[in-house]
Amino acid sequence: MRFLPLRVRRLGLPRRAVSQILLTQLAIAAGVLVLATGLFLAPLSHQLDDQAMRRALAIAQSAAADPTLAADLLRSAPSPDSPVQAAAERIRSATGAEYVVVLDLKGIRRSHPSPDRIGLPVSTDPGDVLAGHEVMEIDQGTLGRSARGKVPLVAADGEIVGAVSVGIAYDSVRDRLLGAIPGLLAYAGGALAAGALAAFLLSRRIQRQTRDLAFSDIAGLLAEREAMLHSIREGVIALDRNDRVRLVNDEAARLLGLDQDRTEALAGRPLDEVLGAGRTSDVLAGRVTGRDLLTVQGPRVLVANRMPTADGGAVATLRDRTELEHLSRELDSTKGLIDALRAQDHEHANRLHTLLGLLELGLHEEAAAFVTEVVGVHRTTAEQVTEKIHDPLLAALLVGKATVAAERGVPLRLAPDSLLPDRLVDPGGLVTILGNLVDNALDAAAGSATPLVEVGIRAEGRTAVLRVRDSGPGIPAGRREEIFTEGWSTKQPAAHRERGLGLALVRRLAERQGGSARAGEAEDGGAEFSVVLPEALR
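Structure for histidine kinase, as requested:
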């Protein structure tokens, strides 16, 4: 015969969170009821004892107030047939007391429910009551435990001649206490049932909200969520229904320029207070709708998406497009240069054909003059730029932009007062600012009747002042601030990137250096952009 192994399941709390919560709630309700019942019964017992002692004292006072009882005590001897015994038994029968004992000054019983104990000393010390004091107590006597009341017995002349002792059986007090318990338990049972029902309903609600997961599963999910949020290379920020921050992961803190060591302190704070008013707050709060929304926060270009949650809040994701935006702009510049080179190649071929024709015709002097003129034009442009702009990056940018502008039929010239020494603190930032402004000016001036773009760069102490004006249609006064917001553009978006970031970056770069960027109206009716950069020169 083979015996199968017996598998014994360890007793303990169930794994499901709803079962644990239900059992905990029931245990708490039962514990509260037991405590409340005990707290109720303890004072009730004392209260019943006090009522019994006061009742015994009142009966003793009524008996001692009868003047005939003191007179009968003085003129009769201890006997079961004495008038004192008869009066005491009459009072005991009328009040339902356990006993009514009359004693003299020597502590000898003159009355007792048991006649054979008449004439014997009392079992407790009668000193206090014979001294004139009323006594209430719970004590153990010859008839068992009882609630007692003792009163001095005073004769007509005011002298104490004895005492009256009345006892209430303690069993009757206990019976009253035990009689109150069933009703109390009924109320306690009803309260326990109501608590159990409330605990069940609460546990069902928690079951739906936790999807019947165990506490260990919930803890594991929270740990996994924390690890995932802080390890992914995409910014995540969660908001509640009132646009208060719930959580910010490390990447979001980095992209938004927040302190990565104090992200927990941001919980509960309004989004506008954390980031400040602006497009980034509007995008994350849902005041600007759409997918893959572009915004600029500090020096970074971010792509934001927002997903509402069931409780009215939202989770927003952020991706860094700063490097991609720089690459896109470099691609635009490269494309422009390629177009310019292609056009120059075509123009160069035409010039070579012209030169070849002059040589074949024997017009050598005319050919020499033609070459001198062509070379002189390009040399003059480069010399004019480098003469006034001593920084090589800015000079190269302007020479390249002048070539592109010439191919587009838009003259680009330097303002007469332009002069910038080679002492720039951040040449790369100035190249970005000037490149964006010149590109926008070329686009605006290309369609005008007399196209022109003028660039002015000058140094005032350690401050650099840039001015770019064009002959385009200009900017209405009511929209001169709007054009610096992310996403605003009058041009069709390119295939590889979105428009509407150039001027926003210009202002952000200027403000990051403590400067400003403004748009105004040029003298000839076009647009004029002014950028002031304090501390831009060494």
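Residues 86 and 111 are 8 Å apart (CA to CA).
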